[in-house]
Amino acid sequence: MHDFAWVTSPDLVPTVRKFRHTEMEANERPDRHHPLREVTVILLTQPQHDNMIDRYFDATFKALRYYGEWYGEYPYDAITVVDPAMRSASGGMEYPTLFTGGTNRYSPKEASSPEGVTVHECGHQWWYGLIGNNEFEEAWLDEGFNTYSTDRVMKTGWGPFKASRYFFGGSGGGAYVGIPYVFDEIDQSSLGPGNGELRRYGKNDVMVRSGWEYYQTYGLNSYTKPALSLVTLERYLGEEMMYRVMRTYHHRYRFKHPTTEDFIRTVNEVSGKNMSWLFANTWFSSELFDYSIDRINNRRIPTPTGIFSSNGKESEPAPATKTYECEVVVKREGEVTAPVDILVVFKDGSLRREGWDGQYRWKKFTYYTDSPVSYAIVDPYMKLAMDINYNNNSKAVREPGYRSLAARKYASKWMFWVQNYLEFAAF
User: So where are the chain's domains?
Assistant: First the structure.
């Protein structure tokens, strides 16, 4: 039983506006345009949050628009947005046709508050509301799908938000999914920081597990991991195919209480590809993705010297056809396997693109060229959004005489702490 007394509190100030979206807008793709019904948006705000009214409406309208275009029309005539009092422990909650946001009067436009929580909670009208999945037994079909969708709306509807500054490496609460952000100039709409959660807690639980059975991983397995897995799926299928998959799934199972298996079947059917391998390695596994460039070796091919004899005839050696023998070794550091791309860049600017099924522990690529390898990257397009360590995805060849990076590494750390101390003291 929820106490909704705060909804009718005399302190809340009502504002009503109409969401209308019938004509195609300038930044809208013609093939994605779907005229949507008019919706009455009722906003109840705290008196001290009057400067947030326009931002609340803007976020709600964009959620209604993009969720409606991508997945399906919001089917009701009205939706109510409640701006709860600070420290009331009632913010960021969803109910059919009603949700609570959360912000403070001094939230700058560079921070996604109230935008992030508004889009996310409004998005629950689709996931879980219209789909009607079991939130207790398959929470990822609700929170995970909505986190993925929120991320897309935030990137589409706004420029990148910037996180608040936290001193001495501390982390603050995420904008809408509890993901920590550390420095300013970090895009708050990115799910990238979720890889740290995977690295720390990913092996604790298989994702496909009832919510009450998780050990320290409810947030990870309900929000972050499923969202990152959907990003990975999109990068393997392509954005257009992912749009078709998600819209088909939503339309097919509106008010029908789908399960995980229903979604997987929809993916395979609509895409025409068997993507079960991805779900087996993500949703039904607690192992982790991690691919690396292990080694680059450029060996100059020596010029042949001496006298060669063939059938009693002596001859000078033939000149070498190429100058270098180059080796690039890619390694699978994690237990999970996936097909990966490799980009090899040579010093003269030429490129080689390779593919590897990623099954064995390592793969060596050998080239005979006139230009040595400059650097190599595994998964250059970051299809594996769940890779737990992007730092080892690339390797560059140091030029002769280049000093060790160790001094730079520790100098950078020292400067980081000095800068934090000075900024904290000044603040």
Answer: 5-282, 291-302+318-407
The pTM assigned to this predicted structure is 0.82
Work out the number of other CB atoms within 10 angstroms of the CB of residue 372: 19
Pick the CATH number of 5-282 from 3.30.70.120, 1.10.3720.10, 1.10.390.10, 3.40.50.300: 1.10.390.10
415 Cβ contact list (under 8 Å, min separation 6) = none
Sheet holding 94-95, edge to edge: 13-21, 36-45, 78-82, 98-100, 94-95
CA angle 335, 338, 343 (to 5 degrees): 115
371-374 long-range CB contacts below 8 Å, 24 or more apart?
A: 371/323, 371/324, 371/346, 371/347, 372/298, 372/324, 372/326, 372/346, 372/347, 372/397, 373/296, 373/298, 373/326, 373/328, 373/344, 373/345, 373/346, 373/347, 373/397, 374/345, 374/346, 374/347
Confidence of residue 181 (pLDDT cuts 50, 70, 90): very low
- 322-338 confidence digits (pLDDT tens): 889 999 999 999 999 99
Domain 291-302+318-407 sits in CATH 3.30.67? no
Instruction: Please write the tens of the pLDDT for every residue from 192-244.
Output: 667 888 999 999 999 999 999 999 999 999 999 999 999 999 999 999 999 99
The answer to whether the bond into 226 is cis (omega within 30° of 0) is no
